[in-house]
Amino acid sequence: MLLRVGELAKRTGLTVRTLHHYDEIGLLVPSMRSDAGYRLYRRQDVARLHRIQALRSLGMSLADIGALLDRPSPSLTAVIERQIQELERKIADQSLLRDRLVALHQQFENGDEPEMDDWLKTLEMMTMYDRYFTPQELDRLPLYQADDERQIEWKALIGEAEALMRQGVPPDDRAAQELAKRWMMTLERDTAGDPTLLDKLNAMHANEPEVQAQMGISAQVSEYVMQAFAQSKLAIYQRYLNEEEFAFMRQRYPQRMHEWPPLMAKLRQQLEQGTPPQAPAVQQLAREWLELLRSFAGDDPATHEKIRRANEQEPALQASVWMTERMKEYLGKAIAYLPAS
Amino acid sequence: MLLRVGELAKRTGLTVRTLHHYDEIGLLVPSMRSDAGYRLYRRQDVARLHRIQALRSLGMSLADIGALLDRPSPSLTAVIERQIQELERKIADQSLLRDRLVALHQQFENGDEPEMDDWLKTLEMMTMYDRYFTPQELDRLPLYQADDERQIEWKALIGEAEALMRQGVPPDDRAAQELAKRWMMTLERDTAGDPTLLDKLNAMHANEPEVQAQMGISAQVSEYVMQAFAQSKLAIYQRYLNEEEFAFMRQRYPQRMHEWPPLMAKLRQQLEQGTPPQAPAVQQLAREWLELLRSFAGDDPATHEKIRRANEQEPALQASVWMTERMKEYLGKAIAYLPAS
DNA sequence: CCTTGACCCTCACGCAACGTGAGCCTCCAA
DNA sequence: TTGGAGGCTCACGTTGCGTGAGGGTCAAGG
């Protein structure tokens, strides 16, 4: 029962080269050589090879197989479980990819042979979203599931904004403010009211000129809308503040309002992780929050009180802007725990 | 808008090494270098990189991407379709593997920590079957889905055969013949009556000592059963033949009967492929069939006629042995088309 | 006895898409 | 002017073999 490589190869369905390779890496070293140097495999070698093939068929690497065969492993079931999990991960990944490809394929199916450019642009957008959002987030991001209606809605909003800008309408104009409010409400809806999603979306728009181009939202437009939104809120606060307070706030608020979204996002994440309000991380966020408030409202507690009253009484300030009741409550507790400074 | 590698890497989520690599293979060569040799990427380079990333996210190889971007490909949808198909193949393969692993895992789940050897033996058997049968065949092979009942049944049959052999009972003994008939019927059932499966199973048993050991069917046992089966058929034919004819047949039949299964398998495959009986391949098989018949029945047409009559009238010859009515009819036609020689 | 042809041997490069140093250069701020 | 961050070019490693190149071995046939 001495087999030469060729014979063993034929019997096992492997190639001679493969057996050479196994020899080289010490996985299966034939226990004999002929005088001429031919590899001679004995029954025990063949048995080992069968085990190797068995384990290979489970997708194990040659290194792992060698380790497993050479010393009695602690737990074989554990090995299998690992293999299963890895396989399931791969399958999940590939299924996702396939679904996406199929969707893409359908999208361009009617309307024969799309232009290369349209094609790639769509693809690029998809990969952009991939870079800024996790798959779970994408699932929760309505903007990503963009149906035609949503597209049209946004096109209209953008068009209006551009028109106002072209006409030189200032951001504190009533029309601009109304547009900004609608814009923000739509945006809130399309980010599922999640400030984390909003924040990432903002980051994406800020960093990727191509996204701006594709969506049609230039940096100017978004800045204009932001300012108009700020003005719409200022207009409300004005009714609660005296002249001096309002003048102060009017100067500072528009510059600092960009800082809300990331702060809200972080707060929301802590809330969802169930971090208690007195935890250091949350306390830090509360401090930053107060800091931001002071930066445009000054240090006078009386002013702060007025702003709080406005927030409570004005429906326009209550609605929307990614602040839920739970968030307000959580923030309130965190602030209450802050040592008086 | 000139970016250095590090910056571009950061913005795209790639590594510097990856960008170097793309440069090396000519996929993305920065359109500028600084005086110090630093790679400088312009807007157009960034755009190209975005496209590269988009296509990569579809699972395309760098080579393919390069080809696609450098000349306008004929059909992009075709590319995607290819990707989808490849993905589905991979997914199918991996799902199969996972199912198998899960099954294996469950098999050993109860009965804490199995012995490495049992483990590997089971696995080895699985890979053996894999080598001799296609996945579709395995699906159709009842023996492979071996439940406990089947196992016990075969253990019993093998035990009986071994006992008879030990006791020195000759294959032409009544008891041996009865056992052989039951054996063949069980085997027919467990190969789903498909001679192709039978043939491959035989090949596996003949070539793989380990399979014999695992199943407990030694070459001696299977030869004994074969001979007993031959004797059981001879006993029937005897009633139709004269003494001389039977003496001739008795001498030859046991030696040649091994040749039936492969011949039946080939014939069945032709039948299933819908090959007409007058096709050369089928004609060749018919010739071989007649040749085999002559080899143990002699050249006298009268003898052949007697055998045919026996086959028609004897239920024991009708039943089983992997010959269906359709097969008989097909073979009959093929023989009828043979030029008289 | 010599020649085929089928096998066998040992290098050693190739593949895909980078990861990971090593050794050296450049730039900018302190 | 010095230190640290970032850049450069080799060049080897990874995984599991495929694919020659160049050269022995062995049994059969002329």
Automatic annotation (TrEMBL), chains A, B:
Ranges where the HTH merR-type domain occurs: 2-71
SUPFAM superfamilies linked: Putative DNA-binding domain
Bilayer-crossing regions: none
Annotated InterPro entries: DNA-bd_dom_put_sf, MerR-type_HTH_dom, MerR_fam, TipAS_dom
Keyword set, alphabetical order: DNA-binding
The name this protein goes by in its record: MerR family transcriptional regulator
Organism: Billgrantia bachuensis
Upper taxonomic lineage: Bacteria, Pseudomonadati, Pseudomonadota, Gammaproteobacteria, Oceanospirillales
